[in-house]
Amino acid sequence: MQYVISNYQKGDEVQLAKIYSECFGPTTPSRLRQWHRVTGVLPEHVFIAEFDAKLVSCVEMVFKQLHLGGGVYLKTGGISGVCTDSDYRKKGIVTNLMKFCLNCAESNGASNSSLYTGLDIPAHRIYSRLGFVDIITMRAYIKYFDFPFVLAQWIRMLNHQLKNSKIATRKLQGWEKSVTLDFKEVGPLAFRFRRGRFERLKKPSRKPDIMLSTDILTFTHIIREGTLDWEHIVKTKKLIWKRGEPADIEMLKCILRWTWED
Amino acid sequence: MQTQVRQARKEDAQQMLNLYTAFAQEFLGPASRNLKTFKRILKRKERINWIALDKQGKMVGYVLSRFESKRREGRIEEIVVEPNHDPEKVAKLLVDTAYKALIEKKPAMIAAGTFGDPQHERIFPALGFQPIETTNVFMYAILNTQKFLNELAPIFAERLKNLQEWNGLTQVECEEHSIFLQKASGKVESLIWTNQPIDFKVTLTREILTKLVLSVADSRESLRTGQLKVKTTLSQEKTTQLLRALFPKRQFLIMDYW
User: Fold this and answer.
1) % of chain B beyond a pLDDT of 90
2) Is there a single domain that holds both residue B65 and residue B122?
3) Span B87-105, mean pLDDT?
4) Shortest Cα–Cα distance, A195 to chain B (Å)
5) Residues B156 and B208 both lie in one domain
6) In a 3-state reduction of DSSP, which class is residue B134?
7) Cβ of B134 and A139 within 8 Å?
8) Is B207:A133 a contact under the CB 8 Å cutoff?
């Protein structure tokens, strides 16, 4: 596959916003322009890959200061906005764009580079191969006051994400199921996927296709990028699978974690 | 009570920046803000930021929080306390105020997150928050080892200078790249190359150098596990002392994201 690597040019944000939306959630071209302005990303530090005149991947570099103690700051090449159209993944495009970006960092006087990512996404392996080392993970603190409302918001967000995710749309095609999540603290809450949309159910169906019993904290770990492993929570009975076919449970796992790549 | 808390105003931007700069000096990690950053933070409508003032009216801390009304979601984002003040007392006061203000808005949830701030661990569980280890990670790579070592040389020189009762030649070698630091009568000089016998030579990989410099690994532990090698005629005690001087344990904290 032959693709062209170049720098970002004014007007690319229209195509780029679509890829951003697929990878990071709903984004508009104006939001993207605003993001570039706020973070100080320069067009010559944005590398894009085009296939058949279609923008398919992007990596950005923004220079930041890293404090190393005693008032000494080091220039670091901060990588951001790493994204690829899902139809063009696993072709080494991002690895090549990253190499361009890291060369750009070096030629601009940075001896080092840094980035934020997720431990459980395919990109993490790419970064590790390029010499990036895990430094620190984020710890979140959460307190719920109205969990049913939070779940309803989460279902709304799923629909927003689905609108932009080609892989999820493909995989969910024809999958029409109802799910009941029985929470120890607030009782059963339910949703279903029908006609290409997630819908919150006011009343759980009598015979849901999938039924899981869990607690709010475990559920939070699953949907909010927690480090708890699915197999571990099933084994320790923090999550009990009461009803549903194994294939449906696998699909639900993808929905909850919103990770669709094989 | 001596410390007072009030909502932050546009004109507080400069003082907040000064406080942020002083606070960031105490930690290692990405920290690169300017006045514009704070002006932008204070301009946003969804933000409710609080500042703590001492009895002279000097700013001694701030907390950044925000509320998204559509999602009924509150966030407490950053707690900064002036290094000379009691961090726990001021931080708790600020978070309590921010928390109460968010509660008044009837949130469905309140969240806080940190890459390394120990204050969070002390404050949030006491308010009934549940901790979650996330998979969000900060990654770091050395691109040019020699340049990186050269940039570290002044930092190492300063650290060796502060080390009492030791003079000699130190070499830090990482994947065939080296820096040489000569300490004599209280002065430390960086040498490009030398054929003098080395008193203390540290050999390490890029990965462990990264982790030691960013203070997320321990030099003694790295020595014990063989990730770091030391060639010296010095005693074990002196070796430990020198390693601690070169790679002191500090708190890595991320203040800025991109």
Assistant:
1) 86
2) yes
3) 95
4) 25
5) yes
6) strand
7) yes
8) yes
Query: Which residue out of B70, B132, B152 would a mutagenesis test of the A interface target, given it has the greatest number of A Cβ atoms within 10 Å?
Result: B132
**Cβ pair A117:B148 closer than 8 A:** no
Q: What pLDDT was estimated at residue A262?
A: 64
Q: Is the pLDDT of residue B44 over 90?
A: no
Q: Name the architecture of domain A147-257.
A: 2-Layer Sandwich (3.30)
* pLDDT > 70 in chain B, percent: 100
Query: What pLDDT does A233 receive?
Result: 94
User: In a 3-state reduction of DSSP, which class is residue A131?
Assistant: coil
Q: Which residues does residue B34 pair with via DSSP β-bridges, in sequence order?
A: none
Residue pLDDT, tens place only, B177-212 = 999 999 998 899 999 999 999 999 999 999 999 999
Contact residues on chain B for A142, CB-CB shorter than 8 A: 109-112, 129-130, 132
Contact A106 B257 (CB under 8 A): no
Residue B171: both structure tokens together: 């070499």
Question: Residue A239 contacts by C-beta under 8 Å, 6 or more apart in sequence?
Answer: A212, A213, A214, A218, A222, A230, A233
Between chain A and chain B, the number of residue pairs with CB atoms below 8 A apart is 218
Q: What pLDDT score does B255 carry?
A: 84
Query: What is the domain range of residue B45?
Result: 4-127
Strand A210-214 relative to strand A177-183: parallel, antiparallel, unpaired?
parallel
pLDDT tens digit string along B98-121?
Answer: 999 999 999 999 999 999 998 899
Q: Where are the beta strands (DSSP E) in B121-251?
A: 130-142, 168-174, 177-184, 187-191, 200-204, 228-232
pLDDT of B1 > 70? The answer is no
- Do B143 and A133 make contact, defined as CB atoms within 8 angstroms? no
Residues of chain A with pLDDT under 70: 262
Closest residue by Cα to residue B212 from B179, B255, B183, B172: B172
Residues 163-192 of B with CB under 8 A from A: none
Pick among A117, A120, A121, A143 to test the B interface (most B CBs inside 10 A): A143
Q: What is the pLDDT of residue B257?
A: 83
Which residue ranges does chain A devote to CATH 3.30.1050.10?
147-257
Find, in chain B, the residue whose alpha carbon is nearest to that of A61: B258
The confidence score (pLDDT) of residue A12 equals 95
Total-model pTM: 0.93
Question: Is B44 among the domain residues?
Answer: yes
Instruction: Provide the CATH number for the domain around residue B176.
Output: 3.30.1050.10
Q: Which CATH number fits domain A4-129: 3.40.190.10, 3.40.50.300, 3.40.630.30, 3.10.180.10?
A: 3.40.630.30
Q: Which two tokens stand for residue B219?
A: 């030099």
Instruction: State whether B31 and A67 contact (CB < 8 Å).
Output: yes
- Nearest CA-CA partner of A217 in A183, A246, A190, A260: A183
CB distance from B24 to chain A under 8 Å?
A: yes
CATH 3.40.630.30 placement within chain A: 4-129
CB-based contact (8 Å) between B100 and chain A?
A: no
Q: Is B152 on the interface with A (CB under 8 A)?
A: yes
ipTM of the complex: 0.94
Overall average pLDDT of the B33-42 stretch: 93
